[in-house]
Specification:
The protein is an alpha/beta fold and about 725 residues long. The chain contains 27 helices and 21 strands.
Length: about 725
Amino acid sequence: MGTNLQLAGLGPDDFGGPALEGCNEVLSLTRPDVVTGVHRSFLDAGVDVVETNAFGAFRVVLAEYGLEDKVEEINLAAAQLARQAVDAASTPERPRWVAGNLGPGTKFPTLGQIAYVDLRQAYQEQATALLAGGVDLLIVETVYDLLQAKAAINGCKRAMVEAGRRVPLQVQVTIELTGRMLPGTEIGAALVALEAMRPDVIGLNCATGPAEMGEALRHLAQQARTPVSAQPNAGLPSVVDGAMHYDLSPDELADHLARFVTELGVTVIGGCCGTTPAHLRAVVERCRHLTPAPREVTHEPGLSSIYSPVSLHQETSFLVVGERTNANGSKRFRQAMLAGEWDTTVAMAKDQVKEGAHVLDVCVDYTGADGVADMTEVASRFATQASVPIMIDSTEAPVVEAALQRLGGRCILNSVNLEEGDETGGRLDRFLTLAREYGAAVVCTCIDTEGQARTADWKAGAAKAIHDVATERYGLEAADLVFDPLVLPLSTGMEESRHDGVETLDGIRRIKAELPGVFTIVGLSNVSFGLSPAARHVLNSMFLHECVDAGLDAAIVHAARIIPLSKIDEEVREVCLDLIYDRRRPDYDPLAELLARFEGVSSGALEREDRSGWSVERRLEQRIVDGDRNGLEDELEEALGGGHSPLEVVNDVLLVGMKTVGELFASGEMQLPFVLQSAETMKTAVSYLEPKMEKADQGGKGTVVLATVKGDVH
């Protein structure tokens, strides 16, 4: 629409005066004949759908022209003009449709330029008028901010409820030449966040031509469960003779779109900037009778930040949920929050990501604190400064919603249970309603009106009860639900607690087997509550290993405090397993044995080992295995001083350590976060040695072949 209005040679008077020049949306009032002419030209070209002249016709944008009080009038006129043109062109054999379009506006909610609620209300107002004008579907287009898209989608849904009319909802993001959305959002993150909002169509439009959006469309075609749309610009823009020019001819645009249909299975096609009736006529002639390629969709349930997606299922590992940004579990985080030292909270978040956290558990609930205000401060910062998704941890619905209104990615709520039952207005109802509205996943704890589920039967029963309510009443999917079977302390010595470890492990197995598609999570540190730090680290690590073997998907942990099994003494391992599985004998109590073994032992002693008698080669090799960079450069210099060349240190020492890491990972003795620490240590060592390598060490110019597994994330 915009391109063709610009080609109409309009002047200030056509817009209603110089102050309104450039506000294309007002032309539906001042020059309805021109707008209608554009619609007719598109319909004459053979299109099935025309968009209204309403791209910027909502309060936020119109206020920049002083037209905020004309939102209803402008949108109603825009919809009616398109409706009239479409009805005149439609026949029983060839119906046509009107799409009410909602653009992104000029304010960035993720950056705090506009409040989510204000933006949602503005979109609701616009959508209400478009529906009243008779549109057949709504398109949220040119999305550059995921939070803006959520506001628009929910505004449209509210308008539909208000109008008593449900129409299809299409959402399209804009991928820049960088291959990401404007803030740096990957297409995978956009799909995870927006598909959870349940639109009817997901696709791309604007910013680039079809060639540049091909790979992002390929991702959608492979993973989106909705139909996929593509409305590229007519190539890339340039200025020719003082006017904007797009470089694709009609036939070239048509050829690209035909390939999207026949190779990727795209089923909604069209054009954006630079698209003229000639372009659309060529597209219709080229594509009208094509058969879309069948799509084999692989859905991967996950979460996302505004940058990247994270799968809930981690191959050969578990989803690490960092626990240090929790006011109840971290004294440092709590003190920073209460003192308003927000940069410290951000630094703690970044530290957890460096330590291997895939998700951050964020809890600001603390007696006497203002949870909504504190969550607003934290979430608004984590939205852009934390690169991983957020688990919103609170018992208060207003606190949870404060976070959801600032986080554009897909979050997970922690948590719901049946302690208060499932009545309307209760915690379960409020949280599941929020999850559906904002597209969030939910942690479901195995608690019912009888209390905390202690046996595997009880855990499985409580989980099924929540599952059935969430899926049948609130429309959530099984993959939206992450069940916590409850980890209870094995450290009390009380008889009724002795079998809690086994019951939790059996509970994990039962939930996974009886509720297909759901995920499981535990709060790991509960298992060792009350023990000394050294004993806690070991028991936590052993219990985590057993949980993962039982099918656990995720754990809330301090990743830096988990010890690889390869570093735990064999006898200590057995004591921990005896405690977990309650293998007591008349003369042996594993809890007493564990306490005795760690009496007076500091947690640091678990990490430190006397290596004074080791050769420098063995020390460096072990550094790689341990992922220990502290003092690395000194030992590298010692190896070089002992006669090794830099390349020999890499090939004969460091790579031996990496081989050990690979073997430990393959056997399950080392988890993925520790593998990454080892890789970072190796990278640091090589970076230090590389400038010292002679050219002769680096080899000649040969042939390098790089490959990845088909479908791999790389």
